[in-house]
Amino acid sequence: MEHSGQTFVESVLVMPLFLLMVFLLLQVGHLGMAMAIVHYGASSAAHQAVVDNQRSDDGALQNKFRGLLGIGLQYMNLTSKLDDDAVAPNITVTACAELPAYPFVGPFLWKALSKSGGNDCSPGAKDFGPVALQGPSPYKFILESKAMARMNYNPN
User: Fold this and answer.
1) Residue 139 lies in a domain
2) What is the dihedral of CA 140, 135, 13, 21, to 10 degrees?
3) Fewest CB within a 10 Å sphere: which of 71, 90, 94, 102?
4) pTM for this structure?
5) 100-121: per-residue pLDDT in tens?
6) Burial environment of residue 41 by CB neighbours within 10 A (0 to 12, 13 to 18, 19 or more)
């Protein structure tokens, strides 16, 4: 019975680190799913532009992208750009969405990340790979994806 107090103290000291690791793993899984959805949304919007032969951005692409967002993702913007080839141009769709960070993970990553620069969707945020972290509180992950598709032949 001499060690029961020591075990309790050690458990209390280790519990915050354990919970941080659990929340960090959950956030990484959430980010992975969110990245897959944003990539798929950009690709679907580019495909939709090709199917409709839509050379200007009239809101249909934004609606397509918004309809695919889930798991806490919030729409930021979606832009499309045609290259200069007049016969069969490429369309590039850039999709941006934000995902709220978990309460313990956002401040921890904000302090751990040192590189600032962001991506096209969030200049000035701290970025790591295809994801940027915007803060301070409330902390949000900014996800960006680009997709390119070749437009149909249009003789006009």
Assistant:
1) yes
2) 30
3) 71
4) 0.83
5) 998 878 888 888 887 777 677 8
6) buried
